[in-house]
């Protein structure tokens, strides 16, 4: 097996000093997930990675990237010593990109980055060897880490690029040296750091600065800030490609049908009618899927194979996955859980509510009798000074009355709770653990329940508690035997 990194290549890439010869088959920043043969990168974050070098080497790390010999580590241990570990990782990433002939796609946006990255992984894997991060590694260390892990013989790579503050995206995009850049959508998120939507659009559009000459810039063609994105694409000398619901867009949706388990989409790809699906309901998934197909076309892939492979995609955990959870295997009672607990802003919350509203509960199987649509909504974070108004505005969703019961979690969601009709109010709690402690009270057989909120409000605790209801039911017969 060809190593990912040799000590000689790593020294060339970083300009560092290696204390021994070594070969690594992977790159790790966490001893909990480190695999034998990985190069351990001792980053300074919440903890100083140098404190874990000895543990990493004991666990089988091929070497460690450090800025000094850590206490308790022998001087002849396999170490790559550099002045600054993060800068060393960045240099590894640039070197890995430069030595690869892979065509690299960058993905950013306020909503849908990770889901679209996974759509692209599915599409590209059907037509070549594809490299993409397993998690949302999209920040100042996540992008170089993803690049440093890229095999030299990859045909494609998908790099997710995120931001919290102005000026973050452009240097990461330039590091990735992109062939194609995709912006999923620009929405109200991170408003604590940006004064308005135009400011967010300018920052997202900075991804086009990382495009190679003649690269392709793909962006939403149906937003008020579309002119900002288009201008940035043209200023970068890129081929500008738009997508969305606007009939003037290069790729536009003509019909979207939400089913219980899939989204069926009719669209036009540069004037050619096309039909595709994704194996989960959601209009936002339809739009992101169309953007992913535009990427496939920009890379010259077979359009029919790309659409077929997209049809097998399902969202990753916490980003809209729908699960069927059995409560009693003897009585065959169950409920459906929509897990969208990873993140939230006004746009993604509205999209999640649309999915719940389009779903069909099952009547006549539970103690309530009527299957219900239920939402558990947690605070949306980092929305800035208008956060209360933005939470209250959720009550203005045109079809919100089709949701039977809404539980609210967190101090910001209390403002929504106050605006809900009395019959629609469930509970308001300050912290997610209060509802997670009594999950059975939240649901009945036949119900469909959505859990949505920003990661920091920890509504994922409620998701975990609801899942365990099913696990307990499944194990009961074994205990009786």
TrEMBL record:
The UniProt record gives the binding positions of ATP as 109-115
Task: List each copy of the Mur ligase central domain by range.
Answer: 107-296
Pfam families linked: Mur_ligase, Mur_ligase_C, Mur_ligase_M
Q: Which InterPro entries match?
A: Mur-like_cat_sf, Mur_ligase_C, Mur_ligase_C_dom_sf, Mur_ligase_cen, Mur_ligase_N, MurCDEF_CellWall_CoF430Synth, MurE/MurF_N, UDP-N-AcMur_synth
The listed locations are: Cytoplasm
Report which reactions are catalysed by this protein. Answer: D-alanyl-D-alanine + UDP-N-acetyl-alpha-D-muramoyl-L-alanyl-gamma-D-glutamyl-meso-2,6-diaminopimelate + ATP = UDP-N-acetyl-alpha-D-muramoyl-L-alanyl-gamma-D-glutamyl-meso-2,6-diaminopimeloyl-D-alanyl-D-alanine + ADP + phosphate + H(+)
| Protein EC | 6.3.2.10
Q: Is Secreted among this UniProt entry's keywords?
A: no
Keywords tagged on the record = ATP-binding, Cell cycle, Cell division, Cell shape, Cell wall biogenesis/degradation, Cytoplasm, Ligase, Nucleotide-binding, Peptidoglycan synthesis
- Pathway recorded for this protein: Cell wall biogenesis; peptidoglycan biosynthesis
Q: Which SUPFAM superfamilies match?
A: MurD-like peptide ligases, catalytic domain, MurD-like peptide ligases, peptide-binding domain, MurE/MurF N-terminal domain
Domain Mur ligase N-terminal catalytic residues, every copy:
25-93
MF terms (GO), sorted A to Z:
UDP-N-acetylmuramoyl-tripeptide-D-alanyl-D-alanine ligase activity
User: Under which main EC class is this enzyme filed?
Assistant: ligase
Where does the UniProt annotation place the signal sequence? Answer: none
Question: Which ranges carry the Mur ligase C-terminal domain?
Answer: 329-454
Among its keywords, does the record have Cell division? yes
Question: Which NCBIfam families did the record assign?
Answer: murF (TIGR01143)
The family annotation for this protein states:
Belongs to the MurCDEF family. MurF subfamily.
Q: What does this protein do?
A: Involved in cell wall formation. Catalyzes the final step in the synthesis of UDP-N-acetylmuramoyl-pentapeptide, the precursor of murein.
This protein's name: UDP-N-acetylmuramoyl-tripeptide--D-alanyl-D-alanine ligase
Q: Which organism is it from?
A: Cypionkella sinensis
Name the encoding gene, please.
Answer: murF
């Amino acid at each position: 097996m060809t190593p990912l990194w040799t000590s000689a290549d790593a020294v060339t890439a970083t300009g560092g000093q290696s204390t021994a010869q070594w070969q690594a088959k992977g790159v790790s920043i966490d001893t909990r997930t480190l695999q034998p043969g990985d190069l351990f990168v001792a980053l300074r974050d919440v903890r100083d990675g140098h404190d874990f070098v000895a543990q990493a080497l004991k666990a089988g790390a091929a070497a460690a990237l450090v800025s000094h010999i850590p206490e308790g580590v022998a001087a002849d241990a396999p170490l790559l010593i550099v002045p600054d570990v993060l800068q060393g990782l960045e240099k590894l990433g640039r070197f890995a990109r430069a030595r690869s002939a892979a065509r690299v796609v960058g993905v950013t946006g306020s909503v849908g980055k990770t889901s679209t990255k996974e759509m692209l992984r599915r599409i590209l894997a059907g037509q070549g060897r594809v490299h993409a991060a397993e998690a949302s590694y999209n920040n100042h260390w996540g992008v170089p880490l993803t690049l440093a892990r890229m095999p030299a013989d990859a045909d494609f790579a998908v790099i997710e690029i995120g931001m919290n503050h102005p000026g973050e995206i452009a240097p990461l995009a330039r590091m990735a040296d992109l062939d194609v850049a995709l912006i999923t959508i620009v929405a109200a998120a991170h408003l604590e750091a940006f004064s308005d939507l135009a400011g967010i659009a300018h920052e997202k559009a900075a991804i086009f600065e990382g495009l190679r000459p003649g690269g392709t810039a793909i962006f939403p063609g149906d937003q008020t800030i579309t002119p900002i994105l288009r201008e940035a694409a043209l200023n970068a000398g890129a081929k500008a490609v738009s997508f969305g619901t606007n009939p003037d867009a290069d790729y536009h949706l003509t019909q979207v049908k939400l089913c219980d388990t899939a989204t069926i989409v009719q669209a036009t790809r540069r004037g050619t009618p096309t039909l595709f699906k994704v194996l989960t309901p959601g209009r936002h998934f339809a739009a992101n899927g169309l953007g992913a197909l535009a990427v496939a076309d920009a890379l010259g892939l077979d359009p029919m194979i790309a659409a077929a492979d997209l049809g097998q995609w399902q969202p990753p955990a916490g980003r809209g996955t729908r699960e069927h959870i059995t409560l009693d295997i003897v009585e065959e009672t169950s409920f459906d859980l929509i897990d969208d607990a990873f993140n939230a802003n006004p746009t993604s919350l509205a999209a999640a509510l649309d999915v719940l509203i389009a779903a069909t509960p099952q009547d006549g199987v539970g103690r309530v009798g009527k299957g219900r649509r239920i939402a558990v909504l947690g605070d949306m974070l980092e929305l800035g000074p208008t956060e209360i108004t933005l939470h209250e505005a959720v009550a203005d969703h045109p079809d919100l009355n089709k949701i039977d019961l809404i539980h609210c979690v967190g101090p910001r969601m209390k403002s929504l709770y106050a605006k809900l009709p009395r019959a629609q109010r469930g509970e308001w709690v300050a912290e997610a653990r209060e509802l997670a402690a009594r999950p059975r009270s939240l649901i009945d057989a036949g119900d469909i329940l959505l859990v949505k909120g920003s990661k920091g409000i920890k509504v994922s605790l409620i998701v975990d508690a609801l899942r365990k209801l099913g696990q307990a039911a499944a194990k009961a017969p074994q205990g009786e035997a």
